[in-house]
Amino acid sequence: MEESVTVKILLSVLVLPVLAFFTSLCFWPGVVIKAYNWFWHRKLGLTVRYSYSGSYRFCYLCRGTPGGATPSLLLLHGFSAGKDMWLPFVKHLPTNQHVVCVDMPGHEGTSRTGVEDYSIQGQVARIHQFVQSIGLVKRPFHLVGTSMGGNVAGVYAATYPAQLSGLTLMCPSGLVYPTDSEFISQLRELEKNPEQESIPLIPSTHQELEEMLQLCCYAPLKLPRQVLRGLLDNRIHHNGFYREVFMELVDEKSRYSLQENLHLITSPLQVLWGKQDKVLDVSGASVLEAAVPNCQVALIDNCGHTIALERPRKAAKLIMDFLTVQKADRDTEKHS
Description:
alpha/beta; 8 strands; 48% helix
């Protein structure tokens, strides 16, 4: 009798969490995705923190402390993403590497104000406030940005060169690309038909979400429908905000911000680009290489626009190798 009761208790302990998981996945898939990200925060030793500049709030992930063998890494995500997009990338960094992933202005846990903060220059100003608020400016740090975040990172490097030890741009926006990508071609069609409301990077349906993922990734993502639903649930109520940001990014004052500031970039520059990028054509890498002296370019095979998600191990190794070389160069200069 006692054994029967014990078995029932054990079964309850084992079955109930599994049942709760599948029930949540069916009815609240967005919550399950957030819980999954929380699990990875814990597993990777990342802490969610907040900092303030006046009443403006920044939300960020961090691990480690500054002052190690390599400079701190500050990671800037792309349009409509968030700090959690860097989780696969952080997984492949050395555990003693100080890393900070911040939600860009208006995204996720960072304050959502108005369009003045969503232009590239507006975002640069807010990121400058952020690095001051957490004391990252006490020693030179390495700045990494992807897509929109790459545009912001490049203009930041042009504006505050003394703060940086180096710069990595992953398929950044803000350039004049020699070759139009599939996405840029779609944008040109949208400009001809302004009454068309759909923007490829702002999905409102499962079909549009699948099309966006196909546009951003080289290899098709075979995600279960419930996971797709969770991704859409977590995004769709932000679509009005995303549209505001998007219109600022394609406005004349932001569209070519990086291109217009290339001549001011003096930090050691590394460029990573997926060879099969359909959002921003890989020909942009040649623009950066031609404009910035001693620029190091790595073109990644079998990779689309989302390098940190598609090839996180490769990206982490390339960046850490770049940091190591830059440190060796600085040490050589000190002793010469």
